[in-house]
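Same chain as my last thread, 326 residues:
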Amino acid sequence: MGECLYLFHGDNSHLIKFKTEQLFENKKIDVSDIEVFDMEETLLVDAVNAAMTIPFLSDNKGVILANASFLTANTKSDNETENQLKYLSNYLSNPNPTTILVIQAPYEKLDQRKPIYKDCQSFCVVEQCLAPNKDDHYSFVKRRIEQEKMIIDANALEEFITRVSENSFMLANELDKLILYADGKSKIDLNTVREVTIKNLESKIYTLVNAVVSKDQWSISSIYQDLMRVNTEPVTIVTLLAFKFQEILYTQALLRMKSKQEDIMKYFSATKGRAYYIIKNATDISESSVMQYLTELEQLDYLMKSGQVDKKIGLEMFLFKPDNMK
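reply #2:
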């Protein structure tokens, strides 16, 4: 098992992204030295060739194989596909030590019968990323706060979980913000949580996406001001916006497959009302526009993290650009 090969898989795409970013940060790999290949759009051989290439101006680099559906049972099997999988298998058995290769498979189940799955198990550091239940959130928050030599009141803990437990990525970011705000205190109380943590952040981001899609500048401005009022990190907003636009893209694919609202509710574990608006957004915007938004958000994320643009100004430029106005 090599320390330059990783497989992150499971139904928690937020955690997969978080673990990937944490890995590269720990390995001290700059975002400018990371290449991302979407396996639903890019040939596997191109990604492997990139991994084989020695970095130019740094000691190490990162390569991400995103949406590695070739590990599931839902991919076609033909000679060309099998040849590319063998190419990856050969690389896994003899990897380039200057490349940190991360295979991201955000799927509930992988096909354990496939040779490529067995090779990943043999050669990669494998971590399963599952959606935690609410009890896991309670213990995670308490343990993290105790590590900072603080305690949190029971009602404050309950309020915090209620506000931010919609996904692990958001919970981790909001918890970091809460701990930073409470630095120097011995206890976190209910008032502190209410002052620092926005209620239902993911719902706010979801509403913000609705406003962007419908080009509702008044709503965009109002939601943005709410987010800034509680010091929500612009990078967190950009990441969650990207997740939501990916959700729209997946919904468009599901609709092409003749999926119904009940199917989409099940796929996203969404309520009937939320599924309605997911479908509405998917039908109100073209796939090319969604891809354009995702490209812009990916570029903005890179510029923010590399310090090439002020985070708040960069977010404002995205939200208030002329294209987002009716």
